[in-house]
Amino acid sequence: GNSVTQMEGPVTLSEEAFLTINCTYTATGYPSLFWYVQYPGEGLQLLLKATKADDKGSNKGFEATYRKETTSFHLEKGSVQVSDSAVYFCALLSNTNAGKSTFGDGTTLTVKP
Amino acid sequence: NAGVTQTPKFQVLKTGQSMTLQCAQDMNHEYMSWYRQDPGMGLRLIHYSVGAGITDQGEVPNGYNVSRSTTEDFPLRLLSAAPSQTSVYFCASSPPGARESTEAFFGQGTRLTVV
User: Fold this and answer.
1) How remote is the C-alpha of A98 from its chain's centroid?
2) Is residue B40 within a helix (H) or strand (E), and if so which, with residue range?
3) What are the residues of chain B with a beta carbon less than 8 Å away from any beta carbon of chain A?
4) Which chain A residue has the Cα nearest residue B38?
5) How many CB atoms lie within 10 A of CB B55?
6) Which positions in chain B touch A45 (Cβ < 8 Å)?
7) How far apart are CA B101 and CA A81, in angstroms?
8) HSE of A82 in the Cβ direction (CA atoms, 13 Å)?
9) What does A29-93 look like in DSSP terms, one character per residue?
């Protein structure tokens, strides 16, 4: 079956530090890959996505590249801010699995000033 | 533009009580899902639906029922609440798609405590 493995947290960084959160996946078919962000007390919201190999998703300074050869979709940001503190979820949606997303366990990021 | 609306936001139940968590979306999405979020376990799929009248079980369906009589609504029923069902519940919806899949849209969540 499908699965997503995320780098374990929590992650604590100083403001302006470089961020990487690793994500690898196992899936049948040709999945689309997503990063969601969850701010305290809120639901998940889409951060970025990529629908095919070598696509790069980007938003708000975050980037992730769909690497089929390594089955990875690592999230990066060059300079984090305090406002980036949140829980980040990697997810996949397989075209063989009728709308059911598979999520990683989430990585909690805390950015200190 | 309400998106996905969940009610209530907070609920405390006694063991053995039943209740229904409401979820409604106004985006005409065909796919709807219920997830529970527990510390260190990410989101686990409870039930999902690919359209009105069609539902199926997810990863952790025991103790929960769903129905989908309309495109807009997808209520989740707890039949006899247990402390193990203490969790945060999220409803999500998405339009259908294959390689051009779009993301899931989430509600704000319902924080349920069973005592």
Assistant:
1) 21
2) none
3) 4, 30-31, 33, 35, 40-43, 45, 48, 50, 58, 90, 92, 94, 96, 98-101, 103-104, 106-109
4) A105
5) 18
6) 106
7) 30
8) 2
9) S--EEEEEEE-TTS-EEEEEEE-STT-EEEETTEEEE-BTTTTB--EEESS--GGG-EEEEEEEE
What are the pLDDT digits (tens) for B62-74? 999 999 999 999 9
**Are residues B101 and A44, on separate chains, in Cβ contact within 8 Å?**
no
Alpha helix positions (H), chain B: none
Cβ(B85)–Cβ(B94) below 8 Å:
no
Own/partner pairs, B87-90, CB within 8 angstroms, 24+ separation: B87/B36, B87/B37, B87/B38, B87/B112, B88/B36, B88/B37, B88/B38, B88/B112, B89/B6, B89/B21, B89/B34, B89/B35, B89/B36, B89/B37, B89/B46, B90/A43, B90/A44, B90/B6, B90/B34, B90/B35, B90/B36, B90/B37, B90/B43
pLDDT digits (tens, 9 = 90+) for B85-109: 999 999 999 887 644 456 888 999 9
Strand partners, B5: B24
Nearest chain A residue to B41 by CA: give it. A105
What type of residue sits at position B74? F
Q: Which residue of A has its CA nearest to B5?
A: A43
